[in-house]
Write a structure and sequence with these properties.
- The structure is a single chain.
- By secondary structure, the protein is an alpha/beta fold.
- The chain has a single domain, classed as Rossmann fold (3-Layer(aba) Sandwich).
- Helices cover about 35% and strands about 15% of the residues.
- It is built from 7 helices and 8 strands.
- Strands 1-2-4-3-5-6-7-8 form an 8-stranded mixed β-sheet, sandwiched between helices.
- A hairpin with a 4-residue loop joins strand 1 and strand 2.
Length: about 250
């Protein structure tokens, strides 16, 4: 009886876990500093703000799924006059479609390719939470100047295992989000900021990711932000200064 109940629970969680990973909000992004672009034959929705700096930023948000919730991170780059492109996720912010790991990663590469065709200078990637997996995936497949990660994870399925008491990393049909698998293909310097009070993605995940990256020969700058939780990390004092100093030191 117990085994049957557990198997039924596991089957239900496989079917339902995308709703947990992608609880995207509906709020549309309407910042007048950005223009909307739909690019490639994949119909990837982008929000684009032009800047005067040589460096362009490709930004991947967390699983709020709507850029309207990530203005702190976008503003850092706007204030520094960088061109910033935020990828909008299908299923959030009024963007049609259904998200999945495979779709979001393919869309992220298409977003980079579009930006590279438009922008003559270098490109850096910046990801928050769920979006750190996209930033790492793009950096493993394309040439980037730098990788900036806010509250990253090693593998998202480890967090699923902790929350569900299921071996999510070994279960078929589960979207794994294994950022560690892309590390051997990385070469750009990395900045990681992680909240010491983060309960959604505890800081030890970011510390372990940094350690694996350093063992792979990457240059990693890690900042543990005291008092910062998962959601208020970008609003903490010094957040923008750490990003600007990291990019200035490239």
């Amino acid at each position: 009886m117990l085994v049957g109940t557990y198997l039924l629970y596991a089957t239900a969680m496989v079917a339902l876990h995308p709703r947990i990973i992608y609880p995207f909000g509906p709020d549309a992004f309407d910042n007048p500093a950005f223009r909307q672009e739909v690019v490639s034959d994949r119909d990837v929705a982008l929000a684009v703000a032009e800047g005067n700096d040589d460096l362009a930023i490709l930004f991947f948000m967390g699983n709020g799924g709507a850029l309207a919730y990530f203005t702190y991170s976008l503003t850092v780059h706007q204030d520094a006059s960088r061109t910033v492109v935020g990828m909008e996720y299908p299923g959030g912010g009024g963007i049609p479609g259904k998200p999945s790991e495979m779709r979001l990663k393919a869309d992220a590469l298409a977003a980079y390719d579009w930006l590279a065709a438009q922008h003559d200078g270098p490109i850096a990637v910046h990801g928050f939470s769920l979006g750190t997996g996209l930033a790492i995936h793009v950096a493993a497949s394309r040439e980037v100047e730098a990788i900036m990660l806010d509250a990253p994870y090693t593998t998202l399925c480890e967090l699923m295992t902790k929350g569900s008491y299921l071996p999510a990393c070994y279960m078929p049909g589960v979207q794994k989000w294994r950022s560690v698998d892309d590390i051997p293909a990385l070469s750009a310097p990395v900045l990681i900021q992680h909240g010491a009070a983060d309960q959604l993605i505890p800081i030890n995940y970011g510390e372990r990711l940094a350690s694996i990256m350093e063992e792979a020969g990457l240059t990693v700058t890690f900042h543990a932000i005291d008092e910062a939780t998962h959601n208020n990390l970008p609003g903490q004092p010094g957040y923008a200064d750490r990003i600007n100093a990291f990019l200035a030191g490239l």
